[in-house]
Amino acid sequence: MTTLPQSNASKWRVTADGPWEKVPCNVCGADETVLFARTKDLYSQRIYTIVRCTNCNLVYVNPRRSDFEEGYATNEKALPYFLSKMHSESSAFFFPASVLLKFKQRGMVLDVGCGIGHFLLEMRKRSFQVYGIELNQQCAEYGREHFGLEISPGTLDAAPFGDKQFDVITLLSTLEHLGTPQELLRNVKRVLKDDGVILMSLPNIRYLLLRIVHLMRWDMHSTMLDPTGHLYYFSRETLRRLCEVVGLTVVYEECGLVSSLRAEGSFYKNIVKKIVFPISNYMELGSMLTFVCKKNHSDTIG
Question: Which fold has domain 67-203+242-251+293-302?
Fold first, then answer.
């Protein structure tokens, strides 16, 4: 990818209100970066710098606020947001549920970053035993009280789960929000059964529209990158590399402009499935990356 011209730097500045930290790449550990973009906060005039690792190409916010996790836990806007998505989210979660059914038809599911439990409700309909982890206290409490879901507030490393407990673990629009994705995936792998699967779905930094904006060297809008919430911006390349570092094998991936699972039944839909989807998936044009992973075979022996 090209980088935004440094001549634009004079009109941008990072404000110094609050605690800030500079971090190395969370995939490869390198500390050499180039500018990818600068973008405004969604809620103020604060400017965030987004960089690309010169070693592995991971794109991430740097520097960043060091108190972001506390902000998630106490954010009073989270519950109203998830409640407003109640009806639209039901259809949105049909796709990851359909993907999972290709690999597991029953068992225990853990959704990390589950909100109020939209996806857990979908999996419960399919006779799975469902559990959730949610950093936001209000959302976790709402899911427990209104839906009868077993949602633990807080982080996965502090949750009361044993090793090799779950058949399926999902991270749906979760990995990009957290400060140490590699550490989270290691914890996910720890509580996953040897024959279990992990499904990750997250925004794609190589989405067609973002590529066009970046190629034209236009300013990135906060609605595209959302640096207050999204600390990391993965591509297929960098997400694969993260999986390799953690010891996961990718067994399914999708990043087409349309989903192959939705292209069933008619002549035109078959064209989408057989022509449009394979091309757009190969070129990584879709807005979302969806990966299914398993533990490396060597990790499950003995």
Answer: Rossmann fold (3.40.50)
pLDDT per residue as tens digits for the range 221-241: 666 788 888 999 999 999 999
Residue pLDDT, tens place only, 70-93:
888 888 888 998 888 776 666 678
Q: Is the pLDDT of residue 8 over 60?
A: no
Q: Do residues 181 and 81 touch, judged by C-beta distance below 8 A?
A: no
- DSSP string covering 84-139, please? HTHHHHHHHTHHHHHHHTTT-SSSEEEEET-TTTHHHHHHHHTT-EEEEEES-HHH
Does the bond joining 153 to the residue before it have cis omega, within 30 degrees of 0?
no
The answer to whether the beta carbons of residues 185 and 248 sit under 8 Å apart is: yes
Q: CATH 3.40.50.150 residue ranges in the chain?
A: 67-203+242-251+293-302
